[in-house]
């Protein structure tokens, strides 16, 4: 039934390659099917002015798509002089999601910026960015711990995200572009590796959905995130 031939509960193949760049404190390339995102984490010994002197750190994110990440070339946002609304919304989501899994007191007064650059897009770019972004963050924190700059680990369970929706009347997990573009209901689920919810974005795209369907989507998301968390732990080990 699915264009890819996958079962309703079947994720796309996931790979996370670390050590992908030379300079960043943490970096990985995450591939979720044909969606590929480069994630890097940069550590700075400063915090935004509103946090200065408070003893807490900060995690933020930036997101962008390369011009040929999609089937036709997109104009670089820098050439337009401003970021689009979609870009701003996604990078705020990534930042919120990653911060939810950080003990900012344990991080100390430093900022970690996670940059997520979409190399190739085939649906679920924001979910892949969150999932890969956590691995880059984990690697950067590991470096701080090894150097003795942190006395306790500020990260707990992995933070990952997966899309779920109603496609051709059936709840499915991890939508690729053909499914995403035709789904009657589309959602993104951000969760911890042990199943706690961080954020849910759900909307009907031409049809309503029931409470039972929502529960089924939550179950699919939980199973999907558990698989992603396993891949995250393996990559960051």
UniProtKB/TrEMBL annotation:
Gene3D superfamilies: GHMP Kinase, N-terminal domain. InterPro entries: ExoRNase_PH_dom1, ExoRNase_PH_dom2, ExoRNase_PH_dom2_sf, PNPase/RNase_PH_dom_sf, Ribosomal_Su5_D2-typ_SF, RNase_PH, RNase_PH_bac-type, RNase_PH_CS. GO terms for biological process: rRNA 3'-end processing; rRNA catabolic process; tRNA processing. One of its GO terms (molecular function) is tRNA nucleotidyltransferase activity. The keyword Nucleus does not apply. It catalyses: tRNA(n+1) + phosphate = tRNA(n) + a ribonucleoside 5'-diphosphate. Pfam families: RNase_PH, RNase_PH_C. Keywords: Nucleotidyltransferase, RNA-binding, rRNA processing, Transferase, tRNA processing, tRNA-binding. Residues 10-140, 158-222 form the Exoribonuclease phosphorolytic domain. Phosphate binds at residues 86, 124-126. Phosphorolytic 3'-5' exoribonuclease that plays an important role in tRNA 3'-end maturation. Removes nucleotide residues following the 3'-CCA terminus of tRNAs; can also add nucleotides to the ends of RNA molecules by using nucleoside diphosphates as substrates, but this may not be physiologically important. Probably plays a role in initiation of 16S rRNA degradation (leading to ribosome degradation) during starvation. Belongs to the RNase PH family. Homohexameric ring arranged as a trimer of dimers. HAMAP family: RNase_PH. This is Ribonuclease PH. It comes from Rhodosalinus sediminis. The gene is rph.
